[in-house]
Each structure stands twice: as C-alpha cells, then as structure tokens.
Design brief:
Strand content: 35-45%
Radius of gyration: 49 Å
Number of domains: 2
Strand order of the largest sheet: 3-1-2-5-8
Oligomer: single chain
Largest sheet: 5 strands, mixed
Number of strands: 21
Distance between the termini: 158 Å
Order of helices and strands: EEEEEEEEHEEEEHEEEEEEEEEH
Shape: elongated
Length: about 350
C-alpha cells in the first residue's frame, strides 16, 4: 500500500482504525492489519472508522468512501484527545450494493485547509493549489464522464499524494456482500461422541448466531402421542478470523442423541442470515471380543545321552615300613641276649 510518510492504516473487523501524523496506535482486540487484506462486511452490519489524528486540525478530517456508482464525502471532527470516529450505520450498509469500497481519511496538515476537495455541483475534484490559488478541476469523480470505482480512488490518491500538496492521508478498502453463514463438513458420528461443528461468516466479531440441531424425523404430533426428541441448540458469538472471513463454533455432546439424520440450522440474531446442512448419528458398533491365540508348543525329540565315567586308576598299595623295623630290633635284642650268655 502506497502512502505518504507519516500515515498509517490498521483495520479492525468492522472497527477500522486509521492513524495519521505519526500518532501511536493503541492495541485492542479483533483488529486486522492492512497487510492481511480487505475484510468482508455483511449488509446490515455497522462499520466504525476510528482513529487518531494529531495536530488538532480546526476543520477536522475529510472522509471519502468510493465504489462503483457510490460516493460519500464528509468531514469528521477530531476530539480533544486526538481521536475521531465515523459510523456507517446498519441502515447505511443494508442498502449498499455488493462489491469493493475504498475509503480515505484526509488530514489538512500545516496550512489547515484541504487542498483536494470535491465540488458536488459539478462532480469534479478540485486542486486548490492550482489556478493561482483559486483552484482547478483535475478529474470528474461523479456524474457523466466520471471515473469509476478503483480508477476514481486511485486518481484521488495520486492527487493528494502530489508533492505540491501538504495533505496526508490513510486509506483502506473493504467488501460489502449479503450476509452469509457457512457450515464446515461435519461427517458421521456415533452415539456418545463429542465433537465440534464450525463454520465461517462475514458477520462482524461478537455478532451472535443461533445454532439448532434437530433430528430429521422429528415432527409435530398430537398431544396424546409420545415423541422422543433428540438434538441440541445454543447461541454462539462470531470470533475474528482471517482471509476476510470470521469464524464460529459449537460443541456437541451426542450422548443423548438417537441414531438418525440430523439437520443443523444457523440463523443470525440481529442480522438476517441463515445456513443449514445435514449429518448422521449412527449406533456405535458392539465391541468385538479380542481372542488371543497362543502358539502351539513345537514337538521336541529328546535323545538320551550316555555319560561315560572317566577311567579309574587302581590304587597302589604300599607296605608299611614299620613291621621290618620291628623285626630288625627283635634280632638285635636276641643277639645281645645270646652274647651275654
């Protein structure tokens, strides 16, 4: 996005924050940065253009909203705290044609005047710095022979961005389309499952949606007849998304649901929008017992083994030397006795 130094653009989901003249940007929830691309706004939703502009311009700011066969030029006052705000009310957006809308906030800067202005009597854009300070028409933005849509927006940007113009600006664009609420594919679920139904929408964050889930076979009956009801309902809030669309989600507990086909209906609380789809709840199959088969033992042939004892060595018997000694002693004793006699 091309703009003069000193301007900065940040867009919130239907709260559009534009900051001019190097003012700080406060951090708030549900905000889109301009680099993420334009958002899509539903007919009937409010659009707030809110921001900060320093310098206390005495004539306020000039706001331009441009689309095919649509032009709105107005001024917006700047508050004492440097903030400003402009609202496109639901009655305004309800009747806007589908398509892309460009808006631009113009700050007069040092000379205190808007150097690029719109002349509603001729449908022309006037550059007040030309013609010796009297101004000169530079192109036609409405009526016969006028530029349309993107061409007129680009011509306006180039005019204000001229080096001889000291005005600065911040710009952005958004899309207007009929309200919608899409439901993501749900798929089949079992009785007792817990799951989430979700979808996308071009409704603003914090818009509320009613979610109704009813059995397709449920029908009104006589008072004397009994009819089992199965389903769920609740209100959810839209949350900020990306890619130009926001998101919603609804948690479902199918414990009390009966097997049947179910219809999901999504309806807007404050904005006229509807969406629907179908899914099935089926009986959970009976648990199959798990049979564990043990492997059969394999046949083993036992071969008897013969153990051969080690050879036995016969013990060697040794004669004790004692009897021989006794015999010798006996002979000596006998010899002594004979000699004495």
């Amino acid at each position: 996005m091309t703009r003069k130094p000193g301007s900065r653009t940040i867009c919130s989901a239907f709260l559009i924050l534009l900051t001019l003249a190097l003012a700080a940007v406060p951090v708030t929830a549900a905000r889109y940065d301009a680099s993420s691309g334009p958002v899509t706004i539903a007919n009937g939703d409010s659009v707030f253009i809110h921001g900060i502009a320093t310098g206390h311009p005495r004539n306020g700011l000039q706001l331009w909203i441009i689309s095919h066969n649509y032009l709105k030029v107005t001024t917006v006052a700047v508050n004492d705290d440097d903030t400003y705000e402009y609202e496109l009310r639901p009655a305004d957006t309800q009747n806007l044609a589908s398509g892309e809308y460009f808006f631009l906030v113009q700050h007069p800067m040092m000379n205190g005047q808007f150097d690029i202005i719109y002349d509603p009597s001729t449908g022309r854009i006037i550059n007040k710095q030309l013609g010796g300070g009297k101004g000169m028409a530079i192109f036609t933005i409405s009526g016969a022979g006028s530029l349309q849509g993107p061409d007129s927006a680009l011509a306006l940007v180039n005019a204000i961005n001229n080096q001889n113009i000291d005005d600065i600006f911040a710009k952005y664009s958004f899309y207007i389309s009929p309200p919608n609420a899409f439901i993501n594919p749900i798929g089949d679920h079992y009785v007792g499952d817990k799951f989430t139904i979700s979808g996308s929408t071009n409704l603003a964050p914090d818009d509320e949606l009613m979610i109704d889930i009813t059995s397709s076979s449920f029908k009104p009956t006589e008072k004397s007849q009994s009819r089992e009801f199965s389903g769920s309902s609740g209100i959810v809030k839209v949350v900020k998304g990306d890619g130009g669309y926001n998101h919603w989600s609804f948690n479902v507990d199918a414990t009390a649901f009966i097997p049947d086909e179910y219809i999901v209906r999504v309806t807007g609380i404050t904005v006229d929008v509807t969406g629907s789809t179908y899914f099935n709840i089926i009986e959970k199959p009976a648990a199959t017992p798990v049979v564990t088969t043990l492997p059969e033992p394999s046949a083993t042939t036992t071969v008897p083994t013969t153990t051969t004892p080690p050879p036995t060595t016969p013990a060697t018997t040794q004669k004790s030397p004692l009897p021989g000694t006794i015999a010798i002693l006996a002979l000596l004793i006998c010899a002594i006795v004979i000699k004495r006699f």
